[in-house]
Structures are given as C-alpha cells and as structure tokens.
C-alpha cells in the first residue's frame, strides 16, 4: 500500500521558488496544490510555466496554516522566514526552507524551537546535503583515507553580484539580507560543519562599498575543533566565477569545485574522481517526503545545523562574539 501524495504549497516564486515549482509538479511524492508570492508579476510568470491543477495567489494565508496543505516550501528572503515557518509548524505543516535559515539569532531560535515543539519534518535546502561528492568525502574521512585533517580552504569569487540568474532578487545586493556569505558561503559552511563539526569564528571580516551594500570581500580564520578553516571571497573582480572547497589531509587531500566536481591528491597533482551524477533538486524533495513519513535522513539538513551555520555567517556582519 502506497501513501497518498503529500499536498505541497510553495511560498515565494523567485528563481529558487520557480525551480522547485518545476520539480514539484511532476514529483511522485507530492501534489502541488498552491503557490503564492506577494508580487503579482512573479505569480503571473510562474503560472505560465504550469499547465493546470495549481492554485496561484498573492496571499500567504492560502498556504500557511491552510487545511489543504500538508507541507510547505519557503523560498522568500531570509528575514521573512520565521514569520512564515513558525505559524506553519504550529499549524502542523511540515517545512522545507531555503537557506540561510534566518538573519537574526531570535528568528533562528524561534524556528528551531517551533520545529522541535511541532514534531513535524523541518529541513533546510542546502544543495550539498545529498550530493555524491559530500557522501564520498564523509566516507573517506570516516575510513581514514584522508589521514589527519590538517586544514580546509574555501575560495569564492564572483565577477558580478548578484549572479545573473538571481538578478531580479535585488535584496541580494543589500547588506540587510543579501551577500555571497549568506547565499553561497553558507553552503560550504554547512559542508564543513557536517564533515568536521561545528565551526567557531576566530578572526572574520568583510568590506563594503557602502554601509547598506552587500560585501565586496570577506576573509576569515575559523576552526572546527583544532582544524583551521580559511575563507577568502570577493565580488566584482574580473575573472571566472569560483566555487572551491579544499580539505588538506596527511594521506590524501580533496578539492571540490563548481559544487559537484571532486578531485583527490595523493602527492603533487590532482586527479578527478569518477562519481555518480549530481543529485538534482527533486532528490531533496524525495528526502523531505521520507522525513515527513517518519524516516529522517542525514542527507537532509536540519534546522539546528542550519542555525549553527546562520550564527557563523552572521559573525562576519557582527564581529566575533
């Protein structure tokens, strides 16, 4: 006997919301019933991509707490997450939330507490959570193939910020909610936390063109226990976009580039590893459905983990605490 499809509602129809919309309409575990955004133009654009069967509106109450919705996916700016997620959990809905979990500590704590109190599935959409590269790294460290882990290095570079596919999300260019630390570094902070343990900021800093704009550079020394983690990031510099995460071990080192390409070094050169195909967005929806049915998975990020990442990212904005 198979379970009935989970009735899903989407809140936020920007780039990420539309991407999830495209996955959800054909996903076997879900029936997409509602999709909402406060911007009528965003609703119209998303509506044109779906044949039928989905109710579109500009009213969040059509999804949050609605009896016709079992679970929600939230893809709105991070400062709005708590106001949507907490009442949804209190109404008994499961929640799949975009990262970062929140901006403020109070919002993050409220979301973690609401998830724990509700007992419902609550997860955060970190794209590295179920990638073959992440699973390979986790096993390689556990098996001792890396030897002693000596350090991690993270390099990020963007010729323009926001990136083209997110250009309509103007808040990403502002310090209040945006910036590449929250939007991109958070993924690699999650990866490092998962593989090596919680991270502490030792010395972190960033620069801006003006007090209201997103960061132009960021640099920091962090620690996962005794393991140093070095970050350098820049936006607005000529050159290719760079996403690079490197783990240095005494036996083997590993380098992750462009999210999914993993290489290994035994000596003085890198060799590409042949991994399974990258996991698409739909596979994290499958894991979310699994969690809703009472089968949590380590390959889906939890609210407490995302809250630790939030704290780390916000330390760049607030100074070391």
UniProtKB/TrEMBL annotation:
Coiled-coil region list: none
List residues traversing the bilayer: none
Question: Known InterPro entries for this protein?
Answer: Gfo/Idh/MocA-like_OxRdtase_N, Gfo/Idh/MocA_oxidrdct_glycsds, GFO_IDH_MocA-like_dom, NAD(P)-bd_dom_sf
* Keywords, in A-Z order: Oxidoreductase
- Key word S-adenosyl-L-methionine present: no
SUPFAM superfamilies xref list: Glyceraldehyde-3-phosphate dehydrogenase-like, C-terminal domain (SSF55347), NAD(P)-binding Rossmann-fold domains (SSF51735)
Every Gfo/Idh/MocA-like oxidoreductase N-terminal domain range: 6-126
Domain called GFO/IDH/MocA-like oxidoreductase: residue spans: 135-254
**Pfam families this protein is in?**
GFO_IDH_MocA, GFO_IDH_MocA_C3
**Top-level division of the source organism's lineage:** Bacteria
Its name, as the record gives it, is Dehydrogenase
Natural source organism: Kribbella orskensis
């Amino acid at each position: 006997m198979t379970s009935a499809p989970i009735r899903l509602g989407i809140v936020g129809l920007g780039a990420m919301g539309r991407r999830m919309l495209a996955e959800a309409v054909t996903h076997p575990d879900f029936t997409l019933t509602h999709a909402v955004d406060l911007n009528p133009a965003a609703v119209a654009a998303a509506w044109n991509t779906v044949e039928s069967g989905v109710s579109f509106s500009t009213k969040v109450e059509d999804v949050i707490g609605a009896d016709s919705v079992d679970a929600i996916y939230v893809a709105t700016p991070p400062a709005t997450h708590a106001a949507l997620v907490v009442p949804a959990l209190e109404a008994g809905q499961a929640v799949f939330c975009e990262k970062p979990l929140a901006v403020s500590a109070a919002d993050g704590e409220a979301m973690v507490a609401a998830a724990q109190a509700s007992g419902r599935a609550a997860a955060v959409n970190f794209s590295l959570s179920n990638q073959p590269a992440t699973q390979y790294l986790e096993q390689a460290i556990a098996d001792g193939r890396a030897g002693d882990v000596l350090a991690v290095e993270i390099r990020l570079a963007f010729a323009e910020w926001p990136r083209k596919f997110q250009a309509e999300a103007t808040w990403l260019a502002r310090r209040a909610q945006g910036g590449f630390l929250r939007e991109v570094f958070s993924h690699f902070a999650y990866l490092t936390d998962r593989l090596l343990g919680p991270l502490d900021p030792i010395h972190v800093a960033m620069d801006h063109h003006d007090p209201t704009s997103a960061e132009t550079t960021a640099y920091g020394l962090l620690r996962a226990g005794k393991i140093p983690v070095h970050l350098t990031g820049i936006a607005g510099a000529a050159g290719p976009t760079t996403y690079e995460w490197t783990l240095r071990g005494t036996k083997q080192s590993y380098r992750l580039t462009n999210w999914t390409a993993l290489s290994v070094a035994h000596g003085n050169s890198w060799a590409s590893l042949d991994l399974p195909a990258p996991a698409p967005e739909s596979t994290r929806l499958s894991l979310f459905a699994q969690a809703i049915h009472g089968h949590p998975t380590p390959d889906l990020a939890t609210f407490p983990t995302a809250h630790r990442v939030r704290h780390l990212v916000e330390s760049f904005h607030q100074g070391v605490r």
